[in-house]
Amino acid sequence: MQIEFEVLGELKGKGRPRFARVGGYVRTYTDKETTSYEEHIRQSFIASGQSPFQEGEALSVSIIAFASIPSSCSNKKKKEMLAGRIRPIKKPDPDNIAKIVLDSLNKVAFKDDTQVIHLSVEKWYAEMPKLIVRITDSK
Predict the structure, then answer these.
(1) Which residues pair with 48 in a beta bridge?
(2) What's the predicted TM-score (pTM) here?
């Protein structure tokens, strides 16, 4: 079985945990921007109408991240970016993209991201920023 869906919008990576002192204790929380983007990814999966994978299935996840082209780019450079000859070497990092996608799909597309045995993340430029997420059972 294979699931593929798109997440439209600017790319965001998993934010670092935040800490707040509450009384004599320290509370850890995730920032609003990260939680909002995680919800956007979840809703994109749900809107695709795909069925989740079963618990215990080994999964392969491929994420293709399309970053927006900076508005300050020349037309020549823009063509190079769209042709794939110039790739985005800017934030978010591939590991943070993978982390936010996998964390947001826990208990939605699969039981737990420990089921993922193969992971790939690519970054490209495109006119419209988005993520393409492909999850395949590794049978």
Answers:
(1) none
(2) 0.87
